């Protein structure tokens, strides 16, 4: 998304009401020389992309934001990330550019989207020599093999719990990306 689209959206969010092309034009002209038709085209593009809705008012339209500035920023980041030919490297570079405050915000965001601990926690194997250790190890190996899609020696096929894996988890990523996702904080 371009600089002018960002400037227009900033005004739509700031005013928090339906706006006309003329209102946006007059405000933009305080900073730069710009034509009415340019602003009209940008607002129509934003409408076509689904960022604003519009309602006819006489011979003009009034435009209002469809989503928040945060959703818009997220879409911009996602669009840029999708263009990368090496998404893991792009994330590493992006995280490396972050200020300490941005890293704190990323940590807060990751905590918000984490699954409940019961769903993500692995059950540790009992210490060797403990009662039931052999049964537990056999069950653990069968579970690991089932997750990997391997055949079991037992006559019963492995049962799928039916619980979907969380989007973006290492279990969902190919092996080469899983390590990068884990190193990058989860996604």
Name the overall outline.
elongated
Strand content: 5-15%
Q: Low-confidence parts lasting 5 or more residues at pLDDT below 50? A: 130-187
How many strand elements? 2
Rounded to an integer in angstroms, the radius of gyration calculated over CA atoms is 26 Å
Q: Helix share of residues?
A: 55-70%
Describe it:
Helix 1 packs across helix 3 and helix 2 (21-28) packs across helix 3 (36-49). Mean pLDDT is 73; it is low at 130-187. This protein is elongated. It has helices at residues 3-15, 21-28, 36-49, 69-82, 87-97, 100-113, 117-120, 133-148, 175-183; strands at 52-57, 60-65. The chain has a two-stranded antiparallel ribbon. The longest helix has 16 residues, at 133-148. By secondary structure, it is mainly α. It is built from 9 helices and 2 strands, in the order αααββαααααα. A hairpin with a 2-residue loop joins strand 1 and strand 2 (60-65).
Primary descriptors:
single chain, about 190 residues, mainly alpha, two-stranded antiparallel sheet, 9 helices, about 5% strand, disordered C terminus
Layout of SSEs?
Layout lengths: L2 H13 L5 H8 L7 H14 L2 E6 L2 E6 L3 H14 L4 H11 L2 H14 L3 H4 L12 H16 L26 H9 L4
Antiparallel strand pairs: 1-2
Short summary of the structure?
Helix content is 55%, strand content 6%. It is built from nine helices and two strands; from the N terminus they run αααββαααααα.
